[in-house]
Write a structure and sequence with these properties.
Length: 203
């Protein structure tokens, strides 16, 4: 078993980029599209694609392993039918709903450095998120137009995986997939699926 650990460490040192030793810090900026999947018993049946913008600052701790702080902003516009099991009304018609999420996460990123032209990576993060929702809702039973607003803080986590390509000795571009969700018991499902592209620089 010790031999396997030593062999794996030698591989990491052999294939890892020397840029991390000379310039261990990195900064990233990214953006892309996202899609919220809502629990159908609480939230609209139809959800339009939104967008995500974010930035992160991190440091390589050991070869191929980095820690980073990420700040991200997501916005979603939603149109569809609202089903609320706790309401006496059978359903609502949502004409427009705006959902904005801001998040601050601590990520761990692991590079898989066994390729020359590109570097796959996987990661996970945990932190906090703030959600703001504003909706104009029309009741089908009493023909009343209501406005609903809400906001709150919750724990959050994400899983991610992607590929980065070297543009310059200290500059990379990357594309990845992110799964983002809330950490809270008895909370409706509101998973976020994102595809982002970005640029990073070591310093």
């Amino acid at each position: 078993m010790k031999f396997l650990y030593l062999f794996f460490l030698i591989l990491l040192l052999k294939f890892s980029s020397p840029i991390h030793a000379a310039h261990p810090w990195h900064w990233k900026a990214f953006g892309g599209i996202n899609y919220y999947k809502y629990d159908h018993e609480y939230y609209p049946e139809k959800s339009d694609s939104g967008y995500i913008l974010g930035t992160s600052l991190g440091r390589c701790i050991v070869p191929c392993f980095s820690l980073e702080a990420e700040l991200a902003f997501r916005k979603q516009n939603i149109v569809g039918r609202w089903r609320d099991r706790y309401s006496s009304l059978s359903s609502f018609e949502i004409f427009h709903c705006k959902h904005i999420t801001s998040s601050l996460l601590a990520n761990t990123i692991f590079d898989i450095p066994f390729f020359t032209l590109f570097t796959p990576y996987i990661g996970a993060g945990v932190g906090v998120r703030h959600d703001y929702v504003k909706a104009h809702i029309d009741s089908e039973e009493n023909d009343r137009l209501d406005e609903i607003k809400g906001n709150g803080w919750n724990g959050a986590y994400q899983l991610l995986g992607g590929i980065k390509f070297k543009l310059l000795p200290r500059v990379q571009t990357f594309v990845d997939y992110r799964y983002f969700d809330v950490i809270k018991l008895n909370c409706p499902e509101s998973a976020d699926h994102s595809v982002t592209v970005g640029i990073g620089r070591n310093f």
